[in-house]
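Exercise 7b. Backbone tokens:
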């Protein structure tokens, strides 16, 4: 790659990155869906009766809190997906770290930019997580299921163009019991103004999601 000075023109070329990065983070860290109604407590039953199996299952909660998000993706995965980024990442402040935690990594190496963030969202029940999962994927058409990732997973890749600069972004949404894992991965080349290939972005997002789901399952509470 030829050496270029760092005039105001380069600053102008990088300005879409800030907008994109903010949008990528907002997408992965959207607000929770409304909480379900309060749990109904059945009347006390006679000694000869016992609660049914479905009621017991509904009351169970596999995950009580999120794992540390910045330690959820292997260092070698970060090095591969976000060249030049610090593997420690940066955790995004959350109002309740037991319910949601997010970590981000981003770097510009030469003119090649990459952004990755991983978010864990813990709901109060598997039913709530299933509803939120269905609502999320309904908003993102054009993707497909990812087999073997959590209880269910979905990935979608899109490309956008701003000021003739292409950016390609992949999103993976995975559900494991009462938890959601959301991964956003995007990239741009500021020399060619082209975006990385769809396969590169999709596989990268899925790889990060697999690491994150493994970290989540390693910290299960039951």
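Sequence design result:
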């Amino acid at each position: 790659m030829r050496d270029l000075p760092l005039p105001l023109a380069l600053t102008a070329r990088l300005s879409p990155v800030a907008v994109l990065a903010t949008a990528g983070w907002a997408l992965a860290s959207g607000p929770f869906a409304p909480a379900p109604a309060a749990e109904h407590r059945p009347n006390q039953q006679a000694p000869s009766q016992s609660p049914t199996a479905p009621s017991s299952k509904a009351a169970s909660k596999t995950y009580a809190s999120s794992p540390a998000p910045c330690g959820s993706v292997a260092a070698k995965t970060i090095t591969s997906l976000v060249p030049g980024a610090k593997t420690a990442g940066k955790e995004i402040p959350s109002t309740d770290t037991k319910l949601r935690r997010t970590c981000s990594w981003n770097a510009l190496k030469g003119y090649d930019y990459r952004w990755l963030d991983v978010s864990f969202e813990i709901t109060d029940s598997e039913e709530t997580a299933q509803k939120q999962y269905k609502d999320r994927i309904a908003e993102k058409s054009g993707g497909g299921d990812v087999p073997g990732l959590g209880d269910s997973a979905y990935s979608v890749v899109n490309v956008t163009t701003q000021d003739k600069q292409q950016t390609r972004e992949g999103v993976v949404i995975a559900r494991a019991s009462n938890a959601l894992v959301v991964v956003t991965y995007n990239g741009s080349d500021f020399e060619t103004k082209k975006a990385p290939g769809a396969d590169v972005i999709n596989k990268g997002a899925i790889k990060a999601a697999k690491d994150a789901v493994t970290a989540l399952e390693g910290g299960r509470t039951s």
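Instructor comment: The longest helix spans residues 8-28. Strands lie at 90-92, 100-109, 112-122, 144-145, 152-162, 165-176, 179-189.
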